[in-house]
Amino acid sequence: MSAQIPAKHREYRLPTRNGFDSLALQEAATPKPGKGEVLVRIRAVSLNFRDLIISKGSYPLPMRDNVVPGSDGAGEVVAVGEGVDDWKVGDRVAGNFTQLQIDGDVRDEKTLKSALGGGWDGVLTEYKVFPDFGIVRIPDHLSFEEASTLPCAALTAYNTLYGSASHKLHPGQWVLAHGTGGVSVFALQLAISGGANVVITSSSDEKLARVKALAGPLADRVHTVNYKKTPEIEKEVLKLTNGLGVDFVVEVGGAATLAASFGSLRLGGMIGAIGFVGGAPDKPVPDVNGLALTKAATLRGILIGSRRQFEEMVQHVQTTGFKPLVDKVFSFEQLKEAYEYQWSQKHVGKVVVKVA
Question: What is the mean pLDDT of residues 174-199?
Answer without folding.
Answer: 96
